[in-house]
Amino acid sequence: MRRLLLSLLALSFALAIADPAAASDGVLEISRTCAIQTGCFPGDAPGLPVTITMPGAYRLTSNLSQAYNPRFDGVTTAIDITSPGVDLDLGGFAISCFDPEAPSNEPCGGSGHGIATSGGFQAGIRISNGSIFGMPQDGIHLSGGDGSLVESIRSFGNGQDGIMVGGEAVVSDSTSRDNGRHGFWLGQGSTLQRSSASRNGGDGAFAATGSLVTGNTFYANHARGIDARTGTTVSNNTVSSNWGNGIQVGNRVHARGNTITANGGWGLYFAGGVRSGYGDNLIADNASGNVSTNSSLGVSAGGNVCGDTTSCP
C-alpha cells in the first residue's frame, strides 16, 4: 500500500509539471516558479526565456526578472513569442533584468528584450497591463509581425527602444521614459494614441510611413519629439522641451492641433515637407525658430499661432 501511494504521488507530481497552469477562465498562467523551475507549458523549457509557442491567452501572475534565472548570463529575452495570435496580459506585474525589489537606474549588460517575437512573421500579438524596465535592449520588440496591440504598458530604463512595433500596430495608454533610444518606434501604418514619452535618448516617437500620432505628450527627449515620415498624420499632441526639433515632418505629412513649445531646435521642421500641411497649431519659444525657413515645402492651412503672431513662419 505504501509503495502504491508513493507511486501515485510521483505520478501526480509528474502531471503537475507536464500540464500548463490554467486559471478557471482558461488563461494560461506564467509565474516565477514555473518560469524558472519547470517550464510553464509545452514547448517552454525551465529558465528564461519563457517561450510561448501556441496562440491563445496568457497571464503573468508574478514579477519576472532575469535575476531569478539560474542560467542567467546577461544574454536572454524574458518572454519569447514564437506564435501568432498571442494575447499576453501582464496582470499589473513587472518584467525586469534586475531584481524589482532592489531596482537599479541602469539596464543590465548583455542583450535581450523584455518581450519579443521571433521565429518568423508573428502577427496579431497583444501585450497589456504591466511594466517592463531595465532590459538591455527593447522593453517590447514586436517588429516581426503586423497588427499588434500594446495597451497600458510602462516601459522605462531599457537600453534601446521602450516599445517597438511592426506595421499596422496600435499602441495606446502607455508610457515610455528614460530609455536609451526612442520612446516609441512605430512601423508603417501604425497608431500611437493617449501615450507619453519623456527623457528618452532618441526621439519621443519615430513614426514610419502612413502612421497616426494623436493625443500624446512628448517631453524632454534627447532628439526630436516626433519624427513623422511620409504620409503620417500628427494631431493634438503636446510637444515640449525636447532637445532637437519638436516635430520633424517628411513628405505629405499633416500636422494639426499640436502644441509645440520650448524645444531645442525648430518647433516644426520640414525635413522633406513636399505637399505637407499644417494648421491650428500653437508653436512658440523654440530655440531655432517656430517653423523652419524651408516651410515653403509645406502649406499652412491656417489657424496657426507662432509666438505672438498668426503668421507662420
List the topology elements.
Blueprint: H1 2-18, E1 28-30, H2 32-38, E2 50-52, E3 56-60, E4 64-65, E5 79-81, E6 86-89, E7 94-96, E8 115-117, E9 126-133, E10 140-142, E11 149-156, E12 163-165, E13 170-172, E14 175-177, E15 184-186, E16 191-193, E17 196-198, E18 205-207, E19 212-214, E20 217-219, E21 226-228, E22 233-235, E23 238-240, E24 247-249, E25 254-256, E26 259-261, E27 266-270, E28 276-279, E29 282-284, E30 289-291, E31 298-302, E32 305-306
Mean pLDDT across the residues is 89
The unreliable regions are 1-19
Backbone CA Rg = 23 Å
* Helix share, percent: under 10%
Give the structural class.
mainly beta
**Count of DSSP H/I helices:** 2
The total of beta strands comes to 32
Assembly annotation: single chain
- Report the end-to-end length measured between terminal Cα atoms: 91 Å
Largest sheet: 21 strands, parallel
Can you give a write-up of this model?
The chain is mainly beta and 313 residues long. The strands form two sheets. It has a 21-stranded parallel sheet that branches. It has an eleven-stranded parallel sheet with strand order 2-5-8-10-12-15-18-21-24-27-30, with no helix packed on it. The protein is elongated. The termini are far apart. The N terminus is likely disordered.
